[in-house]
Design brief:
Elements (H helix, E strand, L loop, with lengths): L7 H13 L4 H11 L4 H14 L2 E4 L6 E4 L3 H16 L4 H11 L4 H17 L1
Antiparallel strand pairs: 1-2
Helix pairs in contact: 2-3
Length: 125
Amino acid sequence: MKAIKPTESELEILKILWEQGECTVRQVHEIFAENKEVGYTTTLKLMQIMHSKGLVERDEQQKTHIYRALVSRDKTEKQVLGKLIKDMFDGSAVRMVMQALGSHQASDQELEKIKQLLAELENKK
């Protein structure tokens, strides 16, 4: 399985495509520029690089190219998280979870989901 290695900006663009579906560069740029000071040509260049990396595909049938994500959100999250655990937490998922829960005020709903996941993991043993 080929590792997905998007940069921080590429991840932001992927999030837009995952949420919006197929988009033109202009549509992606309008959302991308809401939170980041970036020019249209920078967004275009990033998306061209992402196309060459195989992160997105583009439909060139019309004058305005339509882009869509080629990688799934779930697969990308797993690979990025795996790299973070390996690089930042010396391979310890426990340390990562403890840090996340210790520095983030989880809602009652989030805590319930965590409990459900732990119960599911226990049942799989």
